[in-house]
Amino acid sequence: MTVDDALLARIDRLESLDAIRQLPAKYSLALDMRDGDAWVNLFPEDVRVGGGKQGRKALRDWFDETHSMQFDGTSHHIGGHIIDFDDPDHAQGVVYSKNEHEAGTEWVIMQMMYFDQYERIDGRWYFRRRLPLYWYATDLNKPPIGQRKMRWPGVPPYEGSFHDLFPSWQTYWARQGKPHDGPVDPPAPLEKFIETMRRGAPLPKPRVRS
């Protein structure tokens, strides 16, 4: 690779990072403003919706049904965003999100994160997949202490999947407070931070609708 090629690759990486970082912000704005067209256009045309359905129209139908059924209004606040590139046109990321929901007579707050897979198609970055992982959802005046922290109005409490992507959570508590007696692992290779933390764990299967 020549010096010019290396420089162009670095510029492309910086531009890609910026485009990917905007995706969650655009996702949140479109969702909170209930612009289903803007929201589904953040995904590829062949996006898989579930139940054998595919495509942006099917995803928009899911969007309309879900948000008219469950929420009066929402606000999504984006936190830390980690991005690792698999190759120039594919990347993965973890994004924190703190959300507020007007749900009938209750004001439900939520802490969660997304595990994302991104793909560049014809020069534009899209979400190939978003996997939501939830820690808690509860009325603003009811701290979610204890088990089954997902507490939507009119729905029996259930467990979220906030810690299920990374096995370190279970490993930490399995030691019952005892110090780790093994050596410190080496730093994760470049572009392998998320993959290193996941340690080959399978993807969780979170409950998406309450």
TrEMBL record:
<feature type="domain" description="SnoaL-like">
    <location>
        <begin position="13"/>
        <end position="130"/>
    </location>
</feature>
<dbReference type="InterPro" id="IPR037401">
    <property type="entry name" value="SnoaL-like"/>
</dbReference>
<dbReference type="InterPro" id="IPR032710">
    <property type="entry name" value="NTF2-like_dom_sf"/>
</dbReference>
<protein>
    <submittedName>
        <fullName>Nuclear transport factor 2 family protein</fullName>
    </submittedName>
</protein>
<dbReference type="Pfam" id="PF13577">
    <property type="entry name" value="SnoaL_4"/>
</dbReference>
